[in-house]
Amino acid sequence: MKAKIILHLDMNSYFASVEQQANPFLRNKPVAVCAYLSPRGTIIASSAEAKAKGVRVGVGVEQAKLLEPKTIFVENEPAKYRCVTKRIFAIMAEYSDKLEPYSIDEAFLELGEWVKDFKQAEAIGLEIKKRIFNEVGEYLKCSIGISYTKFLAKFAGDIAPKNGLLIISPDNLETHLNRELTEAWGIGRAMSVRLRLMGIATLAELKAADPIILKRWLGIYGYYLWCNVNGREITVINRGARPPKSIGHSYCLAKRTREKNYLRTVLAKLCEKTGRRLRNLELEGKSATLYLQYMNGGHLTKTIHAADGFFTTQEFLAPLYDFITDQELEGAVRMMALTLTKLSPVTEQLGLFKNRLKIKNASRAMDKINNRFGEYTVTSGLLFDTEHIARDRVGFRKTVSFEE
Ligand SMILES: [Mg+2]
Predict the structure, then answer these.
(1) Are the beta carbons of 190 and 169 closer than 8 angstroms?
(2) Is the pTM of this model over 0.70?
């Protein structure tokens, strides 16, 4: 079967361009389209002239005035944009009946059997651009990506220069993948963090990764991502990434012992490692289970719960630390494991604890410092007596409610 050729079209600064097209007075000027014209409104599209001054999507009206006092604010008119979109998509539909609108200013077009190669597809792309210019309006510019899968066509369109056209073929695919993970369609910040944890930092590295390992770590979505960057067409691309079911760590102790001080030190390290992973993934867990394995093969487990979710290390370290302190041990311990379960994306809602948001942010800040300057540069007050682990300490303890 002949390989498919897919064209992706994305209008540039769409709503603002339509406004500039409709009203000559707005041309060559910084224009910002807002959902509402009130001072608390937010910008949903801005012209190239406004973007150059930092007036971008998501900026508030008040701030936009500070960035560029000459900004002209226009309230959005969806009916107007839909009308122009219809005309653009009608032009595209003349080249193939396989047109899939993706949003108000983006669409995929699968070119038919008669298009022999990328060169011919490029000619069609340029013709579509020219026709939009001539038949819809000279202020309407677009980026076009052409490739052999839907994902790569959109990726080409996304990385193409504004008002440009980019072809990604099997021959030049590699040269375009030396980019940040988040530049690819379908890889958000959380997914990029998870990939980084696996040692994958660029799209080229994702392409070279082992798909079986990706699937094991990230589920089927990991396999889809690999297919995407390897130019394999997949049918399901709209599934969101799911958080892992559990996060855990374990240590086989260097010293088999029932000595409480030593065990608490290992526990603190275990909790910190697990907590760091939890926070990196922006997750919180409602349960934490500690598992101690004795030399003789027996074991001891303890599960604690937090209705509000565990996020900072202290929240699960403190109760488990007390548990080890109070617990009668049956023998020397050889292995210790900690698992956090009932995971969900972290919420910034203030629950029972008014200071929780502050504590979460402090915990993130501690992680950042430790990531930068090495483990345990800043650490919990609970590690106070564990000199060999804690080099420097900033006391930081909070009380957490937990149910048995
Ligand atoms: Mg666009």
Answers:
(1) no
(2) no
